[in-house]
Known about the structure:
674 residues, two-stranded parallel sheet, 32 helices
Amino acid sequence: MDSSEAELDRIEAQRSTDASHDQQNRTYLPMNIHGSQDFSQSGGDGVTPLTGDTESVPEFLTNLRLSDLYAIRGEDVRMIPEVFSKISDGNKECLEKLRSRGISVARIKSNTGDSILHLAVTWGHLELVKEIVCECPRLLLEQNSSGQTPLHVAAHSGHTTIVEAFVALVTFSSARLCNEESERMNPYVLKDKDGNTALYYAIEGRYFEMAVCLVNANQDAPFLGNKYGVSSLFVAINTGDVSLVKAILKIIGNKDLKGKKSNLESKLQGQKSLAHVALVTQSIGVLDVILDEYPSLMDERDINGWTCLSLAAHIGYYEGVCNLLERSTKGVYVCDQDGSFPIHTAAEKGHENIVEEFIKRCPGSKHLLNKLGQNVLHIAAKNGKFWISNMLIINKDTEHLGVGQDVDGNTPLHLAVMNWHFKSITWLARSSKILKVRNKNGLRARDIAEREVKPHYIFQERWTLALLLYAIHSRGFESVHSLTKPSVPLDPKNNRDYVNTLLLVAALVATMTFAAGFTIPGGFNSSAPHLGRATLATNPTLFIFLVLDILAMQSSVATIGILIWAQLGDPVLIRSSLHVALPLLLFALLCMPLAFLFGVVTAVGHVKWLVVIICIISVLFFSWAIFVLGPHVMLQRSYVSPKYAGDFLVTFMQYKDIIGLFVSLIKFLFCGCY
Length: 674
């Protein structure tokens, strides 16, 4: 006798031993189904007699043992590996062997609490499932250690045909039971340990055919919430399946709107913000289905206190905003719990198209003030949304918002300066009237910038101050001597490291340019009468190459000499040295690539198309180098003339984003990512 036969004998022996315990323990099904008057009419053989035309009944149900629903359950028997393997493989002979030995297949469980029906369902063995469920229909209600019934397992695994077989079984059985027992024979509403029904898993797995079958089988399951307060209806909305959501909502019935709404609230467990979920998933079809059935949901608030319109504005769902505005514009004038209106929310998040849509459809929305007395331009400026700020300030219908003051008397320009949002400064400071406005503390935007800028170098703050001072200088109503203020290093050690870095860069430039002077393009003559002289000495491009190379070398050497003074540790000497050394080093760094350009042109000047390509690349690089290095040098100087440097700063602001897009394009072409 092999090991599997011995194990089956052990199970059979355990079964007979447990029989006496069954009578004492009286362990019943999870739903406590134990006998009925209907069963006494079903016949003594345990097979449910069929009435009517048997052709309308699924074939596998003709052998259904409905009496098994009321059998007393004994103690579980451990499933041996042999049974586990054969059932997983769909082997029906194993089932026959268990029957021949008189072993109750309903009591065999794996170490995770799975019955043989759980295993057959997991592996999708439909015929084996039908045979097991006809013999032991109560296994359909058995739950494993995770609280899942075979219906849960089938839904989670996407076995639609098995789910349909289960639905046929339950429908057939319920028709032959009394009302009380029929309600108990209801696996659709059973929940696992997470509180999820089988329908939840069907929708979550996007098995929509299966989900429709389960919705039609039971009208309560779609509204049951799990332990996180999420119902199957919520999951259906989240998947964006319009037909499924429509099928679930039709369950409520065709009552009047008020009655339907009340009925929905009474049925739905957990979260009830249906329209909000549709907005988050950005499914306009589902949103239409929900609001067509329940228009009042558009005005309700979610757990965060947001209305539908506020939520759509927050997430930037433009199509959703337009849909809601077409239904009603009154939501535009309903504020959230924090006192902000939907247009403020859109401005805070930088959704320019939504702000524009609000103003176009509801012109009055631009005058709305939040609890701090701030209008939409205040919000955009405060949060650094410069595209919205620029759009509003150049629009004739909204430019007056620039002089609007909040409860503290601050204009949008004040708020942009307070938060050092330099991108908006040029547009917000476009008129003298705005620049002259004082807040309740008597401070103009300039006063705030000059008072709050930190003594040590912080690029964002000094860049904001420079742009604001240049705007004041351009308007001509107030004198501006310099666009910068002297900076004081926060930590002398960091300043010393900075000087050492500049020394290293200058030394490298000097070394490379020195070497380039003796390896000029074209080489040298190797014969008399001009032995050792440059072969292309009369070429004008070689002359330009040599001039630029010499300038780069001498500027870098001068930088080294000046920075040596900065090593003495005198703070005043350090600042003075940097003011001279930085421009010289910038000049050397710009001369070096230009020298390289003319050196290459000298060597390949006869290939015209190649010269054109090289020149285009070099111009782009040179422009980029100026925009990167220029502000770094200028903003560290104690004096920067607004007359000569201001235009460069504004130009840098205007084209910085264009250069950024160009850099992103290069990354995409060569690296495959932005």
